[in-house]
Amino acid sequence: MAQTPPTGLQLQSLVTAAETLEVFLADVSVPEPGPDEVIVAVEAAPINPSDLGLLFAGADMTAATRSGSGERPVVTAPIPHAAMRALSGRVGTPMPAGNEGAGIVVAAGSSAAAQALLGKTVAVAGGSMYAQFREVNVAACLELPDGMTAAEGASSFVNPMTVLGMVETMRREHHSALVHTAAASNLGQMLSRLCIEEQIQLVNIVRRPEQEELLRSAGASHVCNSSSPDFMADLTDALKQTGATVAFDAVGGGRLAGQILTCMEAAASATAPSYSRYGSSVHKQVYIYGSLDRGPTELARSFGMAWGVGGWLLTPFLQKIGPEGMARLRRRVADGLTTTFASSYTAEVSLAGALQLAAIADYGRQATGSKYLIKPTS
Amino acid sequence: MAQTPPTGLQLQSLVTAAETLEVFLADVSVPEPGPDEVIVAVEAAPINPSDLGLLFAGADMTAATRSGSGERPVVTAPIPHAAMRALSGRVGTPMPAGNEGAGIVVAAGSSAAAQALLGKTVAVAGGSMYAQFREVNVAACLELPDGMTAAEGASSFVNPMTVLGMVETMRREHHSALVHTAAASNLGQMLSRLCIEEQIQLVNIVRRPEQEELLRSAGASHVCNSSSPDFMADLTDALKQTGATVAFDAVGGGRLAGQILTCMEAAASATAPSYSRYGSSVHKQVYIYGSLDRGPTELARSFGMAWGVGGWLLTPFLQKIGPEGMARLRRRVADGLTTTFASSYTAEVSLAGALQLAAIADYGRQATGSKYLIKPTS
Q1: Do B307 and A310 make contact, defined as CB atoms within 8 angstroms?
Q2: ipTM score
Q3: I need a surface site. Which of A83, A88, B94, B288 has the fewest CB within 10 A?
Q4: Between B252, B258, B277, which is nearest A301 by CB?
Q5: Which residues, 6+ apart, have CB-to-CB distance to B31 below 8 Å?
Q6: Is A54 helix (H, G, I), strand (E, B) or coil?
Q7: CB distance A296–B258 less than 8 Å?
Q8: Do the beta carbons of residue A39 and residue A134 sit within 8 Å?
Q9: Distance linking the first and last C-alpha atoms of chain A
Q10: Selection from A150, A65, A55 nearest residue A95 by Cα
């Protein structure tokens, strides 16, 4: 382990009993790798929307303050009392964060598999990636092709597997086309590319004209703007054309999920052979996988009885499809890492830089077009 | 067909393009039965909550007026504009109503099966039962045991099959205990009896102390009052004790469905081995099968990501379990028609009596403890 220092920085998030969040950098020791383990020097780790829940614990980040030194900043923010119930399990325990990332294997255990990775650039989806060093089992490493940088491979798990999971869920549950909200996000653009490639009809819902333009210029056929006065009519038309009866919704709060169901029902009723008192018999499903709007989901239930709304999360989906299904999706990702599944970033920051209040305000609002990459070794 | 007159009264519901509901009695001809058909002189048909949607079409019945004669009343009521979208398929077409009922077979087709029912008292779940005569296929008839009256057998389908469907759904989806709302209803009392018999843990949610008392005195172990200031704590306790992770909700609107999910999550987290940023991995499900509160369903999403809310309806459930499954449930009902699956009524009315404004105001508000039986031949 000549190349690894005894300790490295790790970003940690702590919820205190005083209903306060503290995010800071801790020195943690770099362990000796076990036989099947390697030590990865993390070069790049994205900040995904799915990282923010653990990182900020629902605290009011508009009230965040920063103390400590420039290299060892401490960000503190108040947690609304109502959010504490769900956090009771983590009070007092500093938690590492960062679902995925990539870096170079700088130390390896004794097994042949571990030794084979020494010096290689690998992508890892194991959590705790906002750190300078991370020990992981070799099974959790995806060796990147020669010449691919850690930055290019850093987002090779969460977004790619999520969009593949959406398409897979659509097929497994016997739908034939998809609806996606917040569709101009990095993930949304990736889903759009995948659907174009696989000739799956996709209805993209965005909030702004420039987002419409972005998706259309990349080849999307159906883009609806939820801020338009014609939104409900436009969406119903797109649903009639595509026959989409399942939606993946990153917004969560407000009326959007219910509006999608209402338009799906209107599209289904338009082609129904006769009136039914209970609405159409077509099952309409919205999966909420994000929470850009943290407010309550409001369902007007003007869409008959054949409907469902529920949470959707990558990990249980992967458990459902099992190791073989997961391996198949991983191969699909590896084949398209610089094309279909490529990510782009608007800013690169160090671990300390990720705790700048201005940076938090930027990536924390989860606005489309703002995506950060942490480079822990910089 | 010596015993059947050429025509009989039938209650009909009409939505007009002028956004008005008209409910009236029409003379309809009594047809010759086909080989496998019988003519039932309907003696008793219940007004179930599931009948009201077709009957009143979402009209504002507090603004209803009555005209016509005492024997041929016409009830008229305005339909809110917003409700018309879902009704476009039935504008201008008078629709018969009444999901189920029972009566005497007064004419039969030529087949042996039809002839065998002549003179028998049968229960029928075929729709159009608010009528003096109803022609039905013999396959839709359940012959009642000797000595059982039509009134005793009139509700042998909707409520019994619904409560059996709830228990069956619980088992098929790998839950081990149930939650039920509006639990002091006729259906709720039936579900409570069934769960006691089958030793299934049931958490009953009611709104009033006398409803708590009613269920407890009938042997219910877990009854929570949603009007109590301790409701959330009481419900969480009951969910911890029972492990119930699926609920059937007759209320639909408001915060109740979300509160149930929140308490299920609290119960699941209390026993979880470690903190998870996405909440517990226990799937929590609420099925909305009624709409006592027609307002929007409001979900605060304070219950992790493993959850679902959806519509539940008897007919698609029966299609899902197929003819064999349905036959099995029918036998179960037949065995308990005067015990587990018995219904009781607070009033009996004629067809014209069902169109009295005072009666509509009573059964139309779907209050627990108010259930009407129409006796078309009286």
Answers
A1: yes
A2: 0.88
A3: A88
A4: B252
A5: B39, B135
A6: helix
A7: yes
A8: yes
A9: 21
A10: A55
